[in-house]
Every structure is written in C-alpha cells, then in structure tokens.
Amino acid sequence: MAYIQFEHISKRFGNNRVLTDISLTVDEGRLVTLLGPSGCGKSTLLRCLAGLETPDTGRIILDGEDITDKRPAERKVSMVFQQYSLFPNMNVYNNVAFGLRIQKMPRRQQQQRVEEMLAMVELQGKENALPRQLSGGQQQRVALARSLVTRPKVLLLDEPLSAIDAKLRKSLQQRIQQIQRQLNITCMFVTHDQDEAIFLSDIIHLMHQGVIEQSDEPIALYTNPKTSFAASFIGNYNVLNGTAFAQMVGDAMTPHDVAVRPETINLLLDAPENEPDRYVLPGEVKEFSPHGNVIRYTVRVGAQDLHADVLFRSFKLFHPGQRVYVVVEKRNCLRVN
What we know:
The protein is an alpha+beta fold and 337 residues long. Helix content is 28%, strand content 33%.
C-alpha cells in the first residue's frame, strides 16, 4: 500500500478551479516532486496534504489513515516554505526547539535532538545567532532543521530554494538530498525548476492547469515525454505539428505532434551521406545565443525554425546566414499527444 494517497482531489477558489480530480500515490521513503509552471496547482495540492487547505472533493490517506479533515497539528507533517518564517527574536537554537517545546518534550531530550539537527544541517556554532545575523542559505537550513526536529512522517518543501542564488542553491539541493536519504523520510517537493526536479526526485509529477500531465522517473520524463506540454516544459523540445513535420522531412503526415530535443540535433557544414535511420535537412542559421557551455542555434529548415544545442567550441562556430545541414536520428523524433 502507498504511504500517501491522494484520491480524486479537486479544489476551487471562487470561480477558479485549481485542482481537478487529482489522484496520485507516494511510496514511503521517496522524494517526490510536484513540478509545473506558476498557477498549475502544485502548491495547493501540497497545502491540502499539510492541512492548510481543505479539498472540495476527494480524500487524503497518510500511512493508512484518512487525514482529510484532521487539523494540521494532528497530521505529523512538517512544511518548509519559500519564506523562511523564522521567529526574528529567537536565536537559532530556540527556533529549532520550538516544536519540541510545544510537544512538551523534556529539556535534556530537546537539547540532544536540536544538537543532532544542527549538526545535520551543518550549523554547529550558530546556536545563539539571530536570524538577521545569518545568510539566506543559513536561514533556510534553520527552517529545514526546525521542520525535521519533530520527526514528522512527511516533509513538505514548497519552493524552498527559489530565493537563493544559483551556486548556493546547488549546494542546498545536495544537502536536502543527503538528509532525505540519511533519514529515509518521505518528502514532497514543489518547484517550477525542471533541473532542480530532475536532480532531486525519485518521481516527478508534472502538473498543468490543475491536472497531472505525466508522472514518471526523471530520466524517463525527460527522454520520453507523452504530451506536447511535457515536451515543451521538461526538455525545451522543438515541438512541431504533424503537418509541419511531414513537410519538413518529406515523410507521411502524422496526426500527432513531433518533439525533438535540441541536443539531439547535429549541425554540419558539409552534406553527410544519407542513411535510412536519420534525417538530413538543409538549413540556414538565423541566430545563436550562449547558454553556459552550450550554444543554442536557431536554424530555419524549410518553413520551420529548429533549436539546436551544440557544445561551445570557439574553433567551430556557425554564424547567421550560414548554410548548414541539420542531422537528427529518426528515433529522436518522438510522437506526442
């Protein structure tokens, strides 16, 4: 039996339907991500699990118990928000110990538990610091320790790293992953960042307009999207309708859209030999832009523009107006709904 079960969850705010008949399961000890653009319903679904919102229909089961109508304090669920929500006049130690004091845990046991958590998030020596004396990353680690110290059944993280700079964000992603595995705690993580979701997750539930668009392991979701939205959101795919694709490659028209990842496209100056398992198409470079160690080219092929990602090599650059050959294996042209 799944550890967490969402059964036919729907939620409206006024005339705005935010969740529509959501059903999904989460196994114990897994880190599961709700991924999607702003307004797709991912945070609302998380808040329903936390007890901060009540679904209009459906029920939520945690560890075999129906918690749909239970108060937040009765659910044994902890939540880390994008805003750190630390008590500004309490030092680090007291912020972390707050939940234990509410539970009336003996002082000696509180101290031991707080020290364990501060060591786990690498904040030893900061016990007496106030939140304003800490960096954003340190404050977020305090919030994480405070959520874990009560040993909840489930840890919920609602875009906890979105306000942190890129380098520190990578470090905290690794720390969250390490802690989750060390404690074997069940986690649900909300983000709109596909790279973050792919790095952290055991399973990704991609959401769009209040429904689950696709659920899969990260690599499977990236390499085999099932819908046009999944292809456009996850892998920055080139998505072409069946007619446009058929005109471009000279194949029979397909009723499905066709998705092609930019990194699966090769650009060549000289015409390669035609082979039955790949398309070779003449094109013209329109523009390019650097993306770290990759250059993204926009190439006009017939009446279509394709994006191609090529490793940045200063001795091999293509320029606007240059004629090239676009080469892509047929297996990398995916039919999507």
